[in-house]
Amino acid sequence: MESRKSRLNLPAGMESSLRLDPVPSVSFFPAIPKTPSPKKTTYGDRFIPCRSSSRLQNFALTEKPSPSKEGGNDAYSRLLRAELFGHDPSPGGTPGGAQGSPISPNKNLFRFKTDHPAPSSPFAVSSMGIGHDNAVEVSTPPKIPRKIPKTPHKVLDAPSLQDDFYLNLVDWSSQNVLSVGLGTCVYLWSATTSKVTKLCDLGNRDGVCSIQWSKEGSYLAIGTSLGDVQIWDGTRCKMIRNMGGHSTRTGVLAWSSCILSSGSRDKNILNHDLRIPSDFASQHVGHRSEVCGLKWSHDDRELASGGNDNQRSQSPIFKLTEHTAAVKAITWSPHQHNLVASGGGTADRCIRFWNTSNGNMLNCVDTGSQVCNLAWSKNVNELVSTHGYSENQIMVWKYPSLNKVATLTGHTLRVLYLAMSPDGQTIVTGAGDETLRFWNVFPSIKTPAPVRHTGVWSMGRTHIR
């Protein structure tokens, strides 16, 4: 007699680990045929397991790991299995305490859907798709929404900080030093060491109306109530120059390299060139009331000014009169040339966006409150506005959608002063409630990939006449 052995329909490489008892031998001698009982089931010589309810561990099957290929990476293999099947047995063993193979079958084997979905992964099967060219594409993981803290992370007392819409008394230098004008004095606060230094005291006859750091952060310009413009060395706490020209208070200042522009209640804008001995090099006349907003573009080619005559002028090219209240808030986009935003006072409450190459208004949003300040983030295409009557809020906007990212509250009076940290992540706001509040509102700047340039670049500059 010759016996036959049954075989399981198992994956290749697993037969060697399984042996079943041989089927009883069959005699070839004639015998009386028997009719099988209807209650018995005739089994063949093949066993096909039911995959939906199989429990291979009941057969005490131990899968032997295939020999590792030369240069193989076991860590990568475990990571790939974990992403595909949602479970990665620890090298220490299998359920029940038995020592097992790192590639032993798990409960999700051959299942298309897990009972408890695991967190999505960019390497998971569900995130892959086949394109028309049969190339496998991996989708980008969804971005996590940025959360802006609703409360300031630091609050400083600022006694005698004036509640005057037309003054500019707070600025943050590129060397991480905050300057604040309080009454007749100017104080310096180091954001690195928290050290406070008294820069100057103008005396009882004069007062601080505006302050502005130079771009490199070495010199601080101070506009006074008598109409003077002083230049101070912030490191040595020493005045190096005093320039006249205005007949009354100088409420706003703006630097452009060696040019310092000043705006005054006398309706005039003076351009002071520090390279020449005279008090000012040129003058812009056009406003019919106090000049309270002044900003140079990032390329130093255009100067935008705003006044209490309810207009924003970009002299001498355009005069824009859509605002219906004083224009103090002005900011240039660091992401797009010829794009400037301006904000109107209590009777206007709008932020308007302009193309200075043709004078067209691009967009407008009603903020619901007096617009006191605007600042455009250099890290992302967003801007922040501070407000007065009646909400005293701080708002962060996306551009160009103008969707609100966040609304921050805390000041009890108009938020008249705004400055941004050198890294572009933190803003400081000041109000007549005599507090300075520091807010984390913008993300860090993304480092751009290196770009190879060919040819020679020539940088030009428009001089003021």
From TrEMBL:
<dbReference type="InterPro" id="IPR036322">
    <property type="entry name" value="WD40_repeat_dom_sf"/>
</dbReference>
<dbReference type="GO" id="GO:0051301">
    <property type="term" value="P:cell division"/>
</dbReference>
<feature type="repeat" description="WD">
    <location>
        <begin position="201"/>
        <end position="233"/>
    </location>
</feature>
<dbReference type="InterPro" id="IPR033010">
    <property type="entry name" value="Cdc20/Fizzy"/>
</dbReference>
<dbReference type="InterPro" id="IPR056150">
    <property type="entry name" value="WD40_CDC20-Fz"/>
</dbReference>
<dbReference type="GO" id="GO:1990757">
    <property type="term" value="F:ubiquitin ligase activator activity"/>
</dbReference>
<dbReference type="GO" id="GO:0031145">
    <property type="term" value="P:anaphase-promoting complex-dependent catabolic process"/>
</dbReference>
<feature type="domain" description="CDC20/Fizzy WD40">
    <location>
        <begin position="156"/>
        <end position="439"/>
    </location>
</feature>
<keyword id="KW-0498">Mitosis</keyword>
<keyword id="KW-0677">Repeat</keyword>
<protein>
    <recommendedName>
        <fullName>CDC20/Fizzy WD40 domain-containing protein</fullName>
    </recommendedName>
</protein>
<dbReference type="InterPro" id="IPR001680">
    <property type="entry name" value="WD40_rpt"/>
</dbReference>
<keyword id="KW-0132">Cell division</keyword>
<dbReference type="GO" id="GO:1905786">
    <property type="term" value="P:positive regulation of anaphase-promoting complex-dependent catabolic process"/>
</dbReference>
<dbReference type="InterPro" id="IPR015943">
    <property type="entry name" value="WD40/YVTN_repeat-like_dom_sf"/>
</dbReference>
<feature type="region of interest" description="Disordered">
    <location>
        <begin position="86"/>
        <end position="106"/>
    </location>
</feature>
<keyword id="KW-0853">WD repeat</keyword>
<dbReference type="GO" id="GO:0005680">
    <property type="term" value="C:anaphase-promoting complex"/>
</dbReference>
<dbReference type="Pfam" id="PF24807">
    <property type="entry name" value="WD40_CDC20-Fz"/>
</dbReference>
<dbReference type="InterPro" id="IPR019775">
    <property type="entry name" value="WD40_repeat_CS"/>
</dbReference>
<keyword id="KW-0131">Cell cycle</keyword>
<comment type="similarity">
    <text>Belongs to the WD repeat CDC20/Fizzy family.</text>
</comment>
<feature type="repeat" description="WD">
    <location>
        <begin position="408"/>
        <end position="441"/>
    </location>
</feature>
<dbReference type="GO" id="GO:0010997">
    <property type="term" value="F:anaphase-promoting complex binding"/>
</dbReference>
<comment type="pathway">
    <text>Protein modification; protein ubiquitination.</text>
</comment>
